TrEMBL record:
The keyword Chaperone does not apply. It comes from Phyllotreta striolata (Striped flea beetle). It catalyses: N(6)-methyl-AMP + H2O + H(+) = IMP + methylamine. Belongs to the metallo-dependent hydrolases superfamily. Adenosine and AMP deaminases family. This is Adenosine deaminase domain-containing protein. Its cofactor is Zn(2+). Keywords: Hydrolase, Metal-binding, Nucleotide metabolism, Zinc. Residues 8-329 form the Adenosine deaminase domain. GO terms for molecular function: adenosine deaminase activity; metal ion binding. One of its GO terms (biological process) is inosine biosynthetic process.
Length: 336
């Protein structure tokens, strides 16, 4: 446990509002009833029948708490500090720009960028931002969101690096034109994929060849994925962001040992170890590393190699990647 806490970690898949813990939600003015609901649904040990929909309901608690620029700023800073405290050396935070009564989508993005920039004064962690398109948005709203995102990327190219497609996987679809446009404009692409069985959509996403994929639970034939999609995947070998506790808590994977990261490790396919929503799923990045070591017999040296591979998959600049590798090598020489 202590080893994983101290290990220099890389987080590539963390949703801002899903990463808020109970303490920060309280500080942001959440009611006891909302917090109780949060606690009941997020406790992995009390797993009863929990649906994806119920898990998605939980995000509303955080969204209610981050409706103002002031609260959003505090929330973003608290998440970055949490990751920094557990020795995460690089974080790609992702969030869906929302317009609220007193905040436009542009102001939403500007606030998160400001929180990231201000953290540089107090934290050593390097942070980049991925902006998300919610799959439940209609085509017109999604296009408008992308326009705002592209405008803000021009303004903050050193922070805003990627575009993500997320939101309830049972709703909406993957609009290839939207993501083609984002890619042409220089954004890296990460897409939530195969969280529910939907072979047709998975094929469309794989053929687009995003820079990274999120989850991919129903992709390997052993996990009910189609052989055709698995073969396309093997040709492309797109890195997969694995979020073990999240998948178990949402009830789509039964236990850690059954997670498809096992097949990725065995077949030497690229992946990263991530939290997804550390607040909603009551986890930490250290815990995710620990579970992978424990359930897949991963030695410290192997973990080090996995994390060095993860650096290659991140959306930082080449110089920043080199510096991250130096930090990791330094740790390796001192400790391992
Ligand atoms: P936000 O984007 O508001 O900062 O973070 C919460 C949002 O991220 C959720 O409302 C949802 O749209 C998205 N999200 C968080 N976790 C997951 C997940 O496991 N799967 C998918 N598809 N979307 C997620």
């Amino acid at each position: 446990k202590e080893f994983c806490q101290k290990f220099p970690k890389i987080e590539l898949h963390a949703h801002l509002n899903g990463s808020l813990n109970e303490d920060i939600l309280r500080q942001l003015g959440c009611s006891d009833t909302s917090i109780e609901k949060y606690q009941k649904l997020t406790n992995i040990l009390n797993k009863t029948t929990r649906t994806l929909e119920e898990c998605f309901d939980l995000f509303k608690v955080a969204h209610n708490a981050t409706k103002t620029q002031e609260n959003l700023y505090l929330a973003a800073q608290s998440v970055i500090r949490d990751f920094d405290k557990e020795n995460t050396i690089y974080l790609e935070l992702r969030t869906t720009p929302r317009s609220e009564e007193d905040m436009s989508k542009e102001e939403y993005i500007e606030t998160v960028v400001r929180a990231i920039k201000d953290c540089k004064n107090v934290c050593s962690i390097l942070v980049k931002l991925i902006l998300s398109i919610d799959r439940s948005q209609d085509a017109q709203t999604a296009r408008e969101s992308l326009d705002v995102i592209l405008k803000m990327k021009e303004k903050h190219p050193e922070i805003i690096k990627g575009l993500d497609l997320s939101g309830n996987p049972s709703v909406g679809n993957f609009d290839v034109n939207l993501f083609e446009k984002a890619r042409r404009s220089g954004l890296k692409i990460s897409i939530h994929c195969a969280e529910v069985k939907n072979d047709e959509e998975v094929k469309k996403i794989l053929e687009f060849v995003p820079d990274r994929l999120g989850h991919c639970v129903f992709l390997h034939p052993k996990h009910n994925g189609s052989a055709e999609n698995w073969n396309i995947y093997l040709e492309k070998k797109i890195p997969i962001e694995c979020c073990l506790t999240s998948n178990i808590t949402c009830g789509i994977i039964e236990k850690y040992e059954a997670h498809h990261i096992g097949e990725l490790i065995e077949s030497k396919l690229p992946f990263s170890i991530c939290t997804d929503d550390k607040g909603v799923f009551r986890t930490t990045l250290s815990n995710e590393y620990e579970q992978v070591m424990k359930h897949f017999d991963v030695s410290p040296k192997r973990l080090y190699q996995f994390v060095c591979e993860t650096v290659k998959q991140c959306f930082a600049s080449d110089d920043e990647k080199r510096l991250l590798l130096v930090q990791l090598q330094d740790y390796y020489q001192r400790v391992l």
